[in-house]
Amino acid sequence: MSSHLLSSRQPILDKIVFFCAVLRCGSFREASIEQGISPAAGSRWVKELEETLSVELIKRSTRQLVATQAGDLLYQRFSPLLPDIHSLCEEVQNLADQQRGEIKISSTPLFARQYLTKIVAEYIEMHPQVNFRIFIEAGEFDPLSIDFAFRASASYQGEPEQDSLLIRRRLLREPLYLCASPDYLAKHGVPTSPQALGQHRCLYARTLVGGNKWCFERDGKTDIATIQDTLECDNSEMLLDLALEHAGIAYLPHSLVGPQLARGELQHIMQDFKCASFDIDLFYRPRTPMPERCAGFKHYLYQRLEQLASTTSHCS
Questions:
Q1: Residue closest to 45 by CA, chosen among 33, 28, 65, 63
Q2: What letters, b where the CB count within 10 A reaches 16 and e where it falls short, cover 11-34?
Q3: The three-state (H, E, C) secondary structure of the chain, written as one string
Q4: CA distance 186 to 189
């Protein structure tokens, strides 16, 4: 038995990890995608694991996978060890002279285009042993499978912060502008109060900047307008394009609409009201120690983002 476990031809640890992924996902295909191997290789691994342990672990049928008593015992005893094994490997990697490994990032499209692309490209150049996997999305994310997440939100003074087990750091803040094309306003009129927005076509992103709740403030009084379901999209650049095509009124950050306002392609409306702010926050789970590749990237991100944001504000 021990000779099999120590044989270089039998990477038993990888096979047990994959076996646990199969039971957790309930599918060889899903587990293969998660672990980055082909379904055929994954199926072969489980068969080889069963041969190595001399016991059947999974009963297969066309409809479902069911763990045998032995398979369930292996899963129940081994799967709780996976986080500790991962943490141990990261601690060992931290002793290396060079940063290496993979960083997984989830980012909204706008932040990725404006800042993240450049920062990641620079970091790869400085640390060629670090690999990135980037997911462009605006909704919820799994903090156990993502190292860093960048999310946009609309906030206003006095808004209570949501409780979270994740560390949250504010990276950027800029004003939101309520704007529409001159053609749209000529055809549908110019709203003069938050309540009047209920009579207009409004373009919004539920996961991006306050969803269908738009906040305004005047004379110390906060007024929140509930927007009718006209058009929802989680990409702020597409919302800008829709506004330019006269589709309705948008609620977008200054850095995105500033050039269009300057050229007269959009008009800033309800200027006597103060809008909410557009915030970009970084989320990550607390880890001690944080892998060196993640700690190094986080430090560079803070430093470089401050420089890039300063340059952008001077140009706008």
A1: 28
A2: ebeebbbbbbbbbebebbeebbeb
A3: CHHHHHCCCCCHHHHHHHHHHHHHHCCHHHHHHHHCCCHHHHHHHHHHHHHHHCCCCEEECCCCEEECHHHHHHHHHHHHHHHHHHHHHHHHHCCCCCCCEEEEEEECHHHHHHHHHHHHHHHHHHCCCEEEEEEECCCCCCCCCCCEEEEEEEECCCCCCCCCCCEEEEEEEEEEEEEECHHHHHHHCCCCCHHHHHHCCEEECCCCCCCCEEEEEECCEEEEEECCCCEECCCHHHHHHHHHCCCCEEEEEHHHHHHHHHHCCCEECCCCCEECEEEEEEEECCCCCCCHHHHHHHHHHHHHHHHHHHHHHHHC
A4: 6
Centroid of chain to Cα 272: 35
Structure token pair of residue 194? 């938050």
High-pLDDT (> 90) share of the chain, % = 38
Greatest mean pLDDT range, 97-101, 149-153, 229-233: 149-153
Contact 210, 276 (CB under 8 A): yes
List pLDDT tens digits, range 17-57.
889 989 988 888 888 888 888 888 888 889 989 998 999 99
Question: How confident is residue 175, by pLDDT bands cut at 50, 70 and 90?
Answer: confident
Angle between helices 69-78 and 12-25 (to 10 degrees): 100
How would residue 87 be classed by pLDDT, with cut points 50, 70 and 90?
confident
